[in-house]
Give the backbone structure.
Amino acid sequence: MYTLARELLFSLSPETSHELSIDLIGAGGRLGLNGLLCKAPASLPVRVMGLDFPNPVGLAAGLDKNGDAIDGFAQLGFGFVEIGTVTPRPQPGNPKPRLFRLPEAEAIINRMGFNNHGVDHLLARVKAAKFKGVLGINIGKNFDTPVERAVDDYLLCLDKVYAHASYVTVNVSSPNTPGLRSLQFGDSLKQLLEALRQRQEDLAAEHGKRVPLAIKIAPDMSDEETAQVAAALIESGMDAVIATNTTLGREGVTGLNHGDEAGGLSGAPVRDKSTHIVKVLASELGGRLPIIAVGGITEGKHAAEKIAAGASLVQIYSGFIYKGPALIREAVDAIAALPRT
């Protein structure tokens, strides 16, 4: 069924197809129909960040930026759903076209630029959703907020989403907001993490619950840089790391139509790079905080590879676009087949 649907969707421009898909998944969720589209994955419960997940395969941020289809995605069998990236104020993102399919490589290049309706719209959608499972909310900064003031945007978003999120992801790794990736390094990272950790403590006291914080990092770091990020996450008391965002590299798409477009590359070509970052993080972190792996999962065995590399959870994005809901069950089954350690 999805093969036919994909043929139709791929006949449209990528962004039109994306918007239509969100509308259809959202409508199916409101009608309670999406569970009929595919066989539900097996139960594979796991506890991570103090949260209970029915299975370890989640939806990565970026597909549902505004939280318009939370119930719809949940009904497809995801063990958790992450929405966003959301910014304090609405913003249109970068000029179109800004989203490109590279089907020969099972890849996508995007330079969307955090296009979203703002945190207040997202919160209204969260409150309207019936989903009671694990919901992550991914937060970022507005494009016109100077990098030296970025912490203000993150704290504003954290204040607003805290009571409504199972966990909050801090996106410091999108390549499509100027200067954002500089927040992953050195004093900039330490200052941001310290501010977030203090605000987390204040909000925990105010709301009577502790909402975990995860930091999403890029795949384009050296092993030394990755080790430094791991040390900063441990020192600041963060709850998880998400590895990884899209890559600026073009390995695997050179010479393909749209392969030279600016933006972040996701899908199959980023798989090995992302898995390497997971392995380095696992070595440096030594189990002190969990890793959520994302990047290039287009088959179930790729999800199992991420878990074997040291991840506790995985997320899919581009693989879902190319393979559809059946990939969720396939990934759960592959993880379940891993030897128990």
